[in-house]
Design brief:
Layout: H1 3-30, H2 42-75, H3 93-98, H4 106-109
């Protein structure tokens, strides 16, 4: 990976971190407990509880993604950045820009 690609990757990682932090903030609001004193009706309450469960799963995924993005940012200047952790082949820059948290090539990620 050349310096220009590394710079693009770093910009992509930083942008993804900012977006993921915003997503986490929004999801935390959606996962707050539903107070029982809200008179929203039984069916609506069940729907709200279901939506809360979906938001909690999305929050967990976003937190995991943020962790991987921060790790990628720390490793951006290491010589093995951009190499698949499994097969050691170079990960295409397009994949890194699309999914900067990914540390595997498409072939190894699909296994």
């Amino acid at each position: 990976m050349n310096q220009q690609e590394r710079k693009k990757a770093k910009e992509s990682i930083i942008k993804s971190i900012e977006e993921t932090q915003k997503d986490i903030s929004n999801l935390k609001e959606l996962t707050k407990p539903i107070p029982p004193e809200n008179a929203i009706g039984r069916v609506s309450r069940m729907d709200a509880i279901n939506n809360k469960s979906v938001s909690e799963a999305a929050l967990t995924n976003a937190i995991n993604k943020l962790t991987l993005l921060e790790l990628a940012l720390q490793k951006i200047n290491h010589e093995d950045f951009g190499l698949c952790v499994r097969c050691k082949n170079e990960i295409p820059i397009q994949r890194i820009l699309l999914m900067p948290q990914s540390n595997r090539c498409v072939h190894c990620a699909s296994k």
